[in-house]
């Protein structure tokens, strides 16, 4: 059984603040696009409107460096004001990759050797240098020269205190229903049959997550 307080009075107040921030910008040319889709190809949308900021992850670091070079900058997620004026820090999920070996593997020795190979210091350095993936190896993390110019990892570190570690991958059950909340903040009720208030929208969100 899963529980959450996403529909608490504090959450409603915070997201009403987000809605207050977004809605005045809907009519002044501000657009929201999927940054992990076509917008990443040329940092603009189909109409040529340029991207000014994006929320993405370290997996896009190398591609963004190709596009922006030394102009690439990154920061933790921003703070915003709730409806009652309280400062709220935007949160996030923190993910990681874990390599394991099944004890009943028919080729246990080879499986252990392969797991050791793809997680050792050299492999983590290679992934960092080619893909921008942050290493977990202590020697690499202590190499200030290696990490000095990696702006996205620095931003990730700054966001870490406000991130919730995932016990397992957050799948479509969360993201699909979260998108409904996001669309409500951006556009209001989707139809006459859908929830008409922010509280009702969050109640439906929590209900979908905890079934």
Class by helix and strand content? mainly alpha
Average pLDDT level = 86
Based on CA inertia axes, which overall geometry fits?
globular
Q: What is the multimeric organization of the chains shown?
A: single chain
Helix content: 40-55%
Give the strand line-up of the largest sheet.
1-2
Q: Unreliable segments (pLDDT under 50, ≥5 consecutive)?
A: none
Largest sheet: 2 strands, antiparallel
SSE pattern:
HHHEEEHHHHHEHH
User: Distance N terminus to C terminus?
Assistant: 8 Å
Strand content: 5-15%
Task: Please count the beta strands (DSSP E, at least 2 residues each).
Answer: 4
Number of helices: 10
Nearest-angstrom radius of gyration? 21 Å
Describe the structure.
By secondary structure, this protein is mainly alpha-helical. It has a domain of 69 residues. Helix content is 47%, strand content 6%. The chain contains ten helices and four strands. The strands form two sheets. The protein has a two-stranded antiparallel sheet. It has a two-stranded parallel sheet with strand order 3-4. A hairpin with a 5-residue loop joins strand 1 and strand 2. The radius of gyration is 21 Å and the shape is globular. The mean pLDDT is 86.
């Amino acid at each position: 059984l899963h529980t959450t307080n996403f529909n608490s009075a504090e959450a409603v107040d915070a997201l009403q603040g987000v809605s207050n921030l977004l809605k005045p910008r809907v009519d002044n040319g501000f657009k929201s696009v999927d940054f992990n889709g076509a917008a990443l190809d040329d940092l603009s949308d189909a109409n040529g409107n340029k991207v000014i900021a994006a929320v993405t992850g370290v997996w896009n670091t190398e591609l963004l460096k190709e596009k922006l070079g030394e102009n690439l900058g990154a920061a933790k997620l921003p703070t915003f004001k709730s409806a009652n004026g309280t400062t709220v820090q935007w949160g996030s999920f923190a993910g990681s990759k874990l390599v394991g070996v099944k004890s009943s593997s028919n080729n246990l020795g080879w499986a252990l050797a392969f797991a050791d190979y793809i997680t050792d210091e050299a492999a983590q350095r290679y992934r960092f240098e080619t893909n921008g993936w942050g290493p977990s190896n202590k020697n690499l993390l202590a190499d200030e020269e290696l990490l000095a110019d990696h702006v996205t990892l620095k931003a990730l570190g700054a966001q870490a205190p406000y991130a919730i570690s995932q016990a397992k991958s957050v799948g479509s059950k969360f993201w699909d229903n979260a998108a409904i909340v996001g669309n409500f903040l951006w556009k209001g009720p989707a139809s006459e049959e859908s929830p008409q208030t922010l509280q009702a929208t969050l109640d439906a969100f929590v209900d979908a997550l905890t079934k």
